[in-house]
Write a structure and sequence with these properties.
The chain contains 14 helices and eight strands. By secondary structure, the chain is of the alpha/beta class. It has an eight-stranded parallel sheet. The chain binds 5'-deoxyadenosine.
Length: 351
């Protein structure tokens, strides 16, 4: 195992360098590529400390409604890309979307994420009506529907949308172009700027372990997140989907994800960082580890059950999919472990 000659308090060193405005690229690269457990744990505990001071111990639970798996794009890693003929496609009606959001709000979920493939069936006006209706439930509304013209972002913002999620996936332009035939990183970043200018709280992020992605790329990803001053950072492993051109590529490393999440917390102390559902789709559920090392948000799918498996962006999603009535039970142990609170059984034993 290598710790890349890091000082024992490398995380503190990084924090000081960030505070002093010193260039941190070489240090980030060393912290990212060290593969010893001690440096990972030190990084995570530094990130955990900052998370506690900035966004606090409350885990934010956000409900995602994946309302359509139709997509006009051909992202070569994604199971719902338009060339996947094996996937049955679905769309939820505005009524179903509203009723789903209402049930979640009744459960106490105060942020609803409306997510879909890039599906032109939902016109700007149709989506604006959905946003307006969901907003009346008194929740925060996040949109995650891909790239659209700026006038549409503006219309939805007026309709009450508060936040927008649009991952840039990778900060290297050639890799972006290879993964997204016909689309450019420049356009993606322009969309992020347009959204920020409209007053959205903008979320973005990357996949870890994309084919051809290097450690310096990940450092650039982190620096881009910092440069854009993103409000929310989605960082998760690439997971090969068998019905895509990348079906035989190995999955991204979970420990690298944990390092990137911790470094992201050091670079953007006040950001919201989800323990992404993709972290739960591997052999073990890595979300508690993410929540103990910088992350502070849990995203829970509240898509009606019969459609959940069809939102197949990556395989083995079922591992991350609790039924709505299991929501509380699913979230509670994760929240407790992250906050290091005793479980109800431990509490019983102690009393
Ligand atoms: N593995 C991991 N994440 C994926 N996404 C799409 N396909 C995959 C995959 N195979 C993520 C991307 C995208 C979001 C909708 O899902 O980051 O932005």
């Amino acid at each position: 195992m290598m710790n890349n000659g890091l000082p024992l308090d490398a995380s503190a060193w990084l924090q000081e360098a960030i505070a002093a405005g010193v260039p941190v690229r070489p240090l980030l690269l060393r912290l990212l590529t060290a593969d010893d457990t001690e440096s990972l744990l030190a990084l995570q505990s530094a990130a955990d400390r900052i998370r506690r001071q900035t966004v606090g111990d409350q885990i934010q639970v956000r409900g995602i409604i994946e309302f359509s798996n139709h997509c006009r794009r051909n992202c070569i890693y994604c199971g719902i890309n338009c060339h996947n003929q094996r996937l049955p496609r679905y769309r939820l009606t505005p009524e179903t979307i509203f009723e789903t959001a209402e049930a979640a709000a009744d459960l106490g979920i105060d942020t609803i994420i409306l997510q879909s493939g890039e599906d032109p069936y939902y016109t700007a006006d149709l989506l604006a009506g959905i946003v307006r209706a969901v907003k009346q439930l008194g929740v925060a509304v996040t949109l995650s529907v891909g790239e659209r013209p700026p006038n549409e972002y503006a219309l939805w913002r007026k309709a009450g949308a508060d936040r927008y999620l649009l991952k840039f996936e990778t900060s290297r332009p050639e890799l972006y172009a290879r993964l997204h035939p016909g689309f450019t990183l420049a356009q993606r970043l322009l969309s992020l700027d347009q959204l920020a200018a409209l007053g959205y709280q903008v979320g973005s992020g990357t996949m870890i372990g994309l084919p051809g992605q290097t450690a310096p790329d990940l450092v650039d990803d982190l620096l881009l997140m910092q440069h854009k001053q993103l409000a929310m950072l989605g960082i998760g492993p690439f997971l090969p989907h068998p019905d895509t051109p990348l079906g035989n590529v190995p999955a991204g490393s979970i420990t690298t994800c944990l390092r990137v999440i911790a470094l992201a917390r050091l670079l953007l102390p006040t950001a919201h960082i989800p323990a992404t559902t993709a972290l739960a789709a591997g052999a073990g559920d890595a979300r508690p580890a993410a929540l103990a090392g910088g992350a502070n948000v849990l995203m829970v799918t509240i898509t009606p059950r019969e459609y959940q498996q069809l939102y197949a962006i990556y395989p083995n999603r079922q591992r991350a999919l609790p039924a709505p009535q299991e929501l509380r039970q699913a979230v509670e142990p994760l929240a407790r472990r992250a906050a290091r609170l005793p479980t109800s059984e431990e509490e019983r034993r102690e009393s």
